[in-house]
Amino acid sequence: MSQEWQIVWFTAWVAGLSTLLILPAGLATAWLLARHDWPGKSLVETLVTLPLVMPPVATGLILLKVLGRRGILGRFFHDTLHLDVAFTWRAVLVALAVMSFPLLVLFTRVAFEQVNPRFEQIARTLGAGEWRVFFSITVPLAWRGIIGGMILAFARALGEFGATIMVAGNMPGRTATLSLSIYDAVNLGQDAAAARLLGISIALAFVAVWAGQWFLRRHRH
Amino acid sequence: MQLLLQNISLPLAEFVLEVNLELSCQVTAIFGASGAGKTSLLDLIAGLRRPASALIQLDGRALTDTARGLALPPRRRGIGYVPQDLALFPHLSVRQNLLYGCKAAPRDGSLFSFEHVAAVLEIQPLAGRSVTALSGGEKQRVALARALLTSPKLLLLDEPLASLDGALKARIIPYLARVRNEFRVPMLYVSHDRQEVQALCDEVVELERGKVLRRVPPQHS
Q: Distance between CA atoms of A96 and A79, rounded to whole angstroms?
């Protein structure tokens, strides 16, 4: 496999995996924000939104401080699990997950808010517990918004740059994603390689969004 | 049936719902103008809203007792609820809607078996259809059947005929009368239509701005 295709495969794989990993926590957070009031809710809302409005490089620096060998989590992983996170593919995964999490939550929260709470209430009177209400009523009625949120999160992960370069570096074959490789190629004056990677980026993002829309159109009820 | 509603207090937007009632008729109408607190009272009985204070007992069994910090969840109250908007789950077929609350229902041949309920309400031909393809009257019958299939000890009907025109109402009232006579389930029937109340109910409780105005036989309402 050429190095460029390896970069494409790695980027798509890690973006897809990060989207799947944030899905359970994203749905739970979105549902809690949409359906309940609790002390500290506005703090959680703000924290969830922060990576969206902060400079990605700043988010990356925070991740580096936490996940580096001398960081709280980094030291724990290194000492107890003999795992390094910073400057490995795991750091890329974490950076993409953190940066795309807000989009997933914002989108799915709106989707949950649009589900008429009366359906959930009546399901409870019909004998359903909270888990059954969530999986048989709330999620199926909000699934278009959930899929939309996943597509956005995946697309955001595909294009992530600032946080990734801070916490994972840009090591070809290990942590280099499409965005980082384009930046690298331009810096080294490799215009043809940059153009090819640019074309692949556009195609990948187009296919992700188009496939998502096609899927939603096919399953419209 | 003995339904005790004692020291009910629920602050609403413009007034406080305050009710003290002991009901024992088979079909009791809760009669009153829009915004009198009728739906809020049904929601309280079903466990869908939390009162400031309340003691709610059905046949001696406490459903809500704020003095003891008791509030049975809606799924454990044994109360069927047909809301004004019916809340038929749009992503499920008629059959799936009907069977949603059916898990704990008695076996075939008993009073609340699927076959018996479907026969009384004449909904067998509708079972394979989509909920969105039903007419107004068909939706009413399906929502009523869905609530009955949970073998409720009490049925709450919130203006079940409000969205139907006069001719359709006249066709649905006999079905409600059949449910009353066939299943002998006690009902609380919210309405502001005297014709419905007189056709179906044994007693009328008139509500005005959250307070019980009077209790009268239906012919005096």
A: 25
